[in-house]
Design goal:
Elements (H helix, E strand, L loop, with lengths): L7 E4 L5 H12 L3 E6 L3 H13 L4 E5 L6 H15 L4 E4 L14 H29 L2 E6 L3 H4 L5 H21 L4 E6 L7 H4 L3 H10 L8 H12 L10 E2 L9
Parallel strand pairs: 1-2, 1-4, 2-3, 4-5, 5-6, 6-7
Bound molecules: 1,4-dihydronicotinamide adenine dinucleotide (NAI).
1,4-dihydronicotinamide adenine dinucleotide (NAI) binds next to helix 1, strand 2 and helix 7.
Pfam families: adh_short_C2
Organism: Rhodovarius crocodyli
GO biological process, one term: monocarboxylic acid metabolic process
Length: about 250
């Protein structure tokens, strides 16, 4: 279990859910981890403690991924000073706001788009020059199967996640010749705080309809992230891998 020995990984949204599972799996595989999160400092500190207990270095800071470039650049600068420059970026932080299309306010639309599409763009931009200068790097963006199949009540979320798939493919053209591999993960429904807000009937319907017969766990996505971050990811280019229990087959 040392696929990432000696590597430094930056993870956005590492305090809970998919980001936490990925931070712990990457650390288990030998990486030092810097992660951000939004406000939930106590949960974040527990993740950092678990990483340190594995003998790896950890840094975390609250940083709003919906903020302007200087805020995101300040996180990257602080994380780099603490641990060193990143070999891997797991661009994961996200939120969801559910409303019928006609009830979405402009502010809510902008918040969802900013945290996902703009935040991931700015985060990738902040680490990219260093990766290019070193001639190596992995950028893994977290999209969603909703970018591929749609869903009601989440139009801005679906738009943002489709934008992330587009960014992944377009950036892969530029970055791959420079040694930086860019790919995406598009999870299906995963048991995290994000889906905990859904009613019991939704969970039951998902379990009934998914060929896999269960929702995913954060670790299911972390293993895909590990594949893309490690030696197994060396020939993926602009791909969107979709661990989704059969929700979308493609
Ligand atoms: P979660 O709610 O369990 O965790 C979200 C993480 O992002 C936390 O660490 C939180 O502090 C951080 N975060 C939230 N807003 C932030 C902000 N403005 N700035 C910085 N950090 C912020 O969510 P989950 O489910 O782990 O989601 C992670 C990613 O996976 C998101 O991009 C989400 O859209 C995506 N995803 C989740 C699915 C699911 O079923 N849970 C399905 C498909 C995609």
């Amino acid at each position: 279990m040392s696929q990432l020995a000696g590597k430094i990984a930056f993870i956005t949204g590492g305090s809970r859910g998919i980001g936490r599972a990925t931070a712990l799996l990457f650390a288990e595989n030998g990486a030092d981890i810097a992660f951000n999160h939004f406000e939930d400092d106590a949960e974040a500190e527990k993740v950092a403690e678990a990483i340190r207990a594995m003998g790896r270095r950890a840094f975390h800071a609250s940083c709003d991924m919906g903020a302007d470039a200087p805020v995101i650049e300040a996180f990257v600068a602080a994380a780099t000073e603490a641990l060193g420059a990143p070999d891997i970026l797991f661009n994961n932080a996200g939120i969801n706001i559910r409303h019928p299309f006609g009830e979405y306010s402009q502010a809510e639309y902008e918040r969802v788009m900013n945290v996902h599409a703009r935040g991931m763009f700015l985060m990738a931009q902040a680490v990219y020059p260093g990766m290019v200068a070193r001639g190596a790097g992995r950028i893994i963006n977290v999209a969603s199967q909703i970018a591929l199949k749609g869903a009601p009540m989440v139009v801005p979320y679906a738009m943002a996640k489709a934008a992330i798939v587009g960014m992944t493919r377009a950036l892969a053209y530029e970055a791959t010749p420079k040694g930086v591999l860019v790919n995406a993960v598009a999870p299906g429904p995963i048991v995290t705080d994000m889906t905990a807000q859904r009613p019991r009937e939704w969970h039951e319907a998902m379990e009934k309809n998914l060929p896999m017969g269960r929702l995913g766990q954060p670790i299911d996505i972390a293993y895909t992230a590990l594949l893309l971050a490690g030696p197994g990811g060396s020939f993926y280019c602009g791909a969107t891998l979709s661990p989704n229990g059969g929700d979308v087959m493609h």
